[in-house]
Amino acid sequence: MIIQLARDYVAECDGILFIFRTQYLIVGHSSWRLERKLTLSTSDAARSWKSPSNLRMIALGLILATSFAAITIYPSGGLPTSTDPSDNKPISTISDWRSIPLEDVNGKQYFLKDYQGKVVVLEFMASWCLTCAQQEQVFKNDFYPKYKDKNFVLLSVTVDPTYDTPDVLKNHIEKKGIEWTMLRDTTLGLTDHFKVTELSTTLVISPDGEVKNTFLGLTQLDTLSGAVDPLLQP
After folding, report:
1. What pLDDT is attached to residue 128?
2. Helix H or strand E encompassing 218
3. Peptide bond connecting 200 to the previous residue in cis, omega within 30 degrees of 0
């Protein structure tokens, strides 16, 4: 609840930055650390009631409340301990990260081990992330059409299943015309395993399940192809 209020309030006030559902909380200026850039209202009417002193007091109160909530929910400073709802086995004890469950918008479970023998490009993303939206365009216009008929699979996994509910993600898929598989890390087990703190993060995984490359931020076709092509050689 506090985190959602923080999201909404940032859209109204300059100079406040929150990182949520990552390894730490940051308060700063101008943009999300995970590159969620917001368009702020600049009209005099919208700001007429906001004096600098009032804004400072409101911002301080919100920061303290959010910090308290973050400490209460995530006492270790990181993501919550992830569990597999199917058998209540802690995700952290699963020896093979390819056995961590992911879900599509219909609740169907997916496991990376099911793609053994294929080249897997795995992107960690969120529907609200602007860098991820740019990465989607690279995937949609260039990368996926080039490789979709090869021994290859592209998976986009949201690290924010609370915001990216099945309905939200389904609407995102339909609106953006996404043809590849988009999943939810509902346990946050895979996100935690790879210590994802920046979006977009893209992994290239070999057919035998070895992570060969990790790319942070917007990754262009040439870079992706340079990592994927050698793995597709017979």
Report:
1. 97
2. none
3. yes
Range of the domain at 185: 83-232
pLDDT at 60: 62
Q: Select from 7, 116, 137, 113 the least CA-distant residue to 62.
A: 7
For the segment 45-83, what is each residue's pLDDT rounded down to a tens digit? 444 445 556 666 666 666 666 555 444 433 333 333 444
Q: Which of 44, 17, 37 is closest to 28 using CA atoms?
A: 17
Number of folded domains that form the chain = 2
**Which tokens go with 209?**
């399940």
Q: How many helices (H) and strands (E) does the chain have?
A: 8, 9
Residues recorded for the chain: 234
Sheet strands side by side (includes 109-110): 109-110, 102-103, 181-184, 152-158, 119-125, 201-205, 211-216
Domain end position, chosen among 25, 46, 73: 73
Question: What CA–CA distance (Å, rounded) separates 138 from 69?
Answer: 37
pLDDT at residue 224 is higher than 80: yes
Cβ(154)–Cβ(121) below 8 Å: yes
Statement to judge: residues 222 and 128 lie in one domain:
yes
Could you tell me the end-to-end alpha-carbon distance of the chain, in angstroms, rounded to an integer? 51
Q: What is the pLDDT of residue 233?
A: 79
Tokens of 137: 């365009």
Query: 122 pairs with which residues across the strands?
Result: 155, 203
